[in-house]
Each structure stands twice: as structure tokens, then as C-alpha cells.
Backbone:
């Protein structure tokens, strides 16, 4: 630690970080993976207990391995066990728990600091996901609400809400899934800012690729990334049919204010509520990169593939278009290539300098 200059430091040991580490290792590049969590599994270890492998949209296999196949198991058990095996089988150099506080530039090198420990590296692969940055928008009167307000990161299961009216906010996959669980045990009321886009049966892999390309284009321009689901559309699965029959997926426009006993709708009516579930998504966990000033004037980090345009030593994986297990997987390979390209360039400029 501290002394030797590493070829790379990977921050985060979710799907994206493990894939990057696998490809760095294949290329024989020295690196460590620093992970804030106490155990393997990335964000999957924190998913709510009722999320089963049947509920997830498919967890892609990590490079050079088979995908987890336990259909009946809990996602927060099956996927962490899979990551754990993978880390050990491939001897990936993961250190935990280590939460990186900041990354700074020191001449040609980068310094990664976590508390009083530092690592010096030529390049960085950031793979910190979004789970640690749940996003809840501000609405007037939120602080006056007498009931409970929570984000899905703290979802305790449907039973917790029995007998209480729950307003579910948000038009993403989490909102759809949680409404599916809540509606059979309690009264729900769904609000979204925009009309939800339902995916039709003729959704093909080609549509999926086009959707990812849309997010890719945003990131190339330096805009804040949209979620991939926001462009692929929503789908109701078998396990959500009971909720559908109960009318859970009748969408209402966003309320204008929160009041002690409910939410005030744009037409002036008060919808009573004892709980508000803010299924309003996440933001990339990139605060520790602030000293590198990577953000564009549009608020996002401009990427060329996975390379940060403002500092080509830095790769971002699991960010924007690669924020899915399959995208994270591919991004890990691309990032390792980006790291190698940077190191080659550096080696070349050093040899030119020494022969001059
Ligand atoms: C509820 C839910 C369900 C989903 N279901 C699916 C699905 O079925 N299929 C699919 O493809 N995608 C799904 N996704 C998206 C998918 O989970 C993610 O895109 C992918 O797993 C993220 O992998 P990641 O490696 O980018 O991040 P994560 O798994 O979040 O890993 C990030 C890691 O970085 C660490 N970290 C964060 N900050 C720091 C720091 N400062 N210092 C050190 N370490 C840090 C964390 O401890 C964590 O281990 C889902 C997302 C959600 C929220």
C-alpha cells in the first residue's frame, strides 16, 4: 500500500468493477479494487428481501463464468454468493471495506485516498454505481407530512404498510415492481411526472440497443445520464397481474405539494396518505471524483466510450449506458482496454523523452 505506483485502481466491486478487474488482470496490469461494502455483492447485497431472482430482469454472467441460475432464491443472497465465488476463483485483488473519500491529481499520477490510507496510480476505473446515492426530489410541505416517507433503498416489505394508504412516486421499474407487491395488501395511489411508457410485445434486442444508444449519446454530450429503463419502457410481468386487476397501475399526475395527511393534487383535491414511497431513482455516486473536475458545463461527465474526456486517465464503468449488468460487463472490458491504451501512450512518450 502507498509505496508502489499501480497501473490502475478500481473503485467499487459490483458487476462493473469485477469485470474491469478481470480484464485488467488478463492484461497483466497491477491494480487493486477498493470496495466500500463489508462483503461481496455490490448493490445486490442491499436489495430488498422480497426481490427474487424471478423478479430481476436477468443478471448477466461475469466474464468467463456462467450466470447465477437459482430462479427461486433471493437476489440479495444469490448474486452476492456468485460474486464471492467469482472474486475467489479469479483471485481478484479486492480490499474491503474501504470507502474512497477523494481522488486527486498529482502531476502524471492520481492519488486515491480513503481515510488515512492512500494509493498512487497511473489510471483509475470508477465503478461505484448509484445505490449509495438514492434521489428524492424536493416538494413543498414534505417536512410537514405526518406519515412515513422512504426510498426503495429502505423498503421493508409490503407487510410493513398493511392498512396504510401508500402514495408511490416514480415511473421506473422499481415503482412498477413495488406497486405489484403493495397493492394486494394495502391501498396504493401511483403518481408520475410523465405518462409512463409501456413496452409493447414487439420489443426486440434491437430496440434495447437503440435505447442504450440514446443514453450513450447523452453521455457523449456531457449531459447527466438518463436511466436505461426510462428509454426502454416498462413492462408488467405475471407477478404484477393481481395488482393490475386491483387498478394499481392507473397513473395519476404528480402532486403539487405534500401536506400533513396526504398529497395535494393539481386539481386541488387532497389524496390522503399514511406513507409516501419515493421510487424516484438514483444518481451516480461520483462525489469523490470532484477534485478531478470531470463534469461538463451540462452537469454530466462527458465520456468517449468509458474514458472521461476531461481526464483520459479515468474510466467510468456502470455509468449511464453501462448501468445494467450486461452493460457493466462490457464496460469493464472496454475500460481495461482504455487503461492499457493510456499506459502504452505514457510508455511511448517516456521512451521518446529519454532518447531525445
Ligand atoms: C432495484 C434494482 C434492480 C435492478 N435489477 C437489475 C436487473 O435485473 N438486471 C440488470 O442488468 N440490472 C439491474 N439493475 C441495475 C444493475 O443493478 C446495475 O446497473 C448494476 O448491477 C450495477 O453494477 P455496478 O457495478 O455499476 O454498481 P454496484 O453494484 O452498485 O456496485 C458499486 C460498488 O461500489 C462501491 N462503492 C460505492 N462508492 C464507493 C466509494 N466511494 N469507495 C469505494 N467503494 C464504493 C459499493 O460499495 C459497491 O460495492 C437493477 C438496479 C436496481 C436499483
Residues:
Amino acid at each position: 500500500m502507498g509505496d508502489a505506483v499501480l497501473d490502475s485502481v478500481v473503485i467499487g466491486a459490483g458487476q462493473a468493477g469485477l469485470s474491469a478487474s478481470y480484464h485488467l488482470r488478463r492484461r497483466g496490469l497491477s491494480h487493486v479494487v477498493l470496495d466500500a461494502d463489508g462483503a461481496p455483492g455490490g448493490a445486490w447485497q442491499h436489495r430488498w428481501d422480497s426481490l427474487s431472482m424471478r423478479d430481476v430482469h436477468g443478471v448477466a454472467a461475469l466474464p468467463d463464468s456462467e450466470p447465477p441460475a437459482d430462479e427461486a432464491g433471493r437476489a440479495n443472497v444469490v448474486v452476492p454468493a456468485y460474486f464471492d465465488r467469482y472474486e475467489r476463483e479469479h483471485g481478484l485483488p479486492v480490499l474491503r471495506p474501504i470507502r474512497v473519500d477523494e481522488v486527486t491529481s498529482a502531476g502524471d499520477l492520481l492519488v486515491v485516498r480513503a481515510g488515512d490510507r492512500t494509493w498512487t496510480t497511473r489510471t483509475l476505473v470508477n465503478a461505484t454505481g448509484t445505490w449509495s446515492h438514492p434521489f428524492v426530489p424536493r416538494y413543498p410541505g414534505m417536512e410537514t407530512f405526518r406519515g412515513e416517507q422512504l426510498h426503495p433503498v429502505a423498503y421493508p416489505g409490503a407487510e410493513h404498510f398493511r392498512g396504510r394508504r401508500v402514495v408511490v412516486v416514480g415511473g421506473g421499474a422499481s415503482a412498477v415492481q413495488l406497486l405489484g407487491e403493495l397493492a394486494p395488501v394495502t391501498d396504493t395511489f401511483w403518481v408520475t411526472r410523465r405518462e409512463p411508457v409501456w413496452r409493447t410485445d414487439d420489443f426486440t434486442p434491437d430496440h434495447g440497443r437503440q435505447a442504450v444508444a440514446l443514453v450513450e449519446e447523452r453521455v457523449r454530450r456531457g449531459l447527466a445520464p438518463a436511466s436505461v429503463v426510462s428509454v426502454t419502457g416498462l413492462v408488467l410481468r405475471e407477478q404484477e397481474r393481481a395488482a393490475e386487476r386491483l387498478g394499481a397501475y392507473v397513473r395519476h399526475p404528480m402532486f403539487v405539494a405534500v401536506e400533513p395527511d396526504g398529497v395535494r393534487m393539481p386539481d386541488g383535491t387532497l389524496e390522503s396518505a399514511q406513507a409516501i414511497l419515493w421510487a424516484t431513482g438514483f444518481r451516480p455516486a461520483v462525489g469523490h471524483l470532484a477534485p478531478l473536475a470531470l463534469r461538463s458545463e451540462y452537469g454530466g461527465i462527458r465520456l468517449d466510450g468509458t474514458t472521461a474526456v476531461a481526464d483520459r486517465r479515468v474510466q467510468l464503468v456502470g455509468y449511464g449506458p453501462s448501468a445494467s449488468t450486461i452493460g457493466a460487463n462490457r464496460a469493464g472490458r472496454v475500460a481495461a482496454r482504455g487503461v492499457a491504451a493510456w499506459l502504452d501512450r505514457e510508455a511511448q512518450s517516456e521512451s521518446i523523452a529519454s532518447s531525445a
Summary: The chain has two domains: 5-132+282-355, 142-198+234-278. The two ends are 34 Å apart (CA to CA).
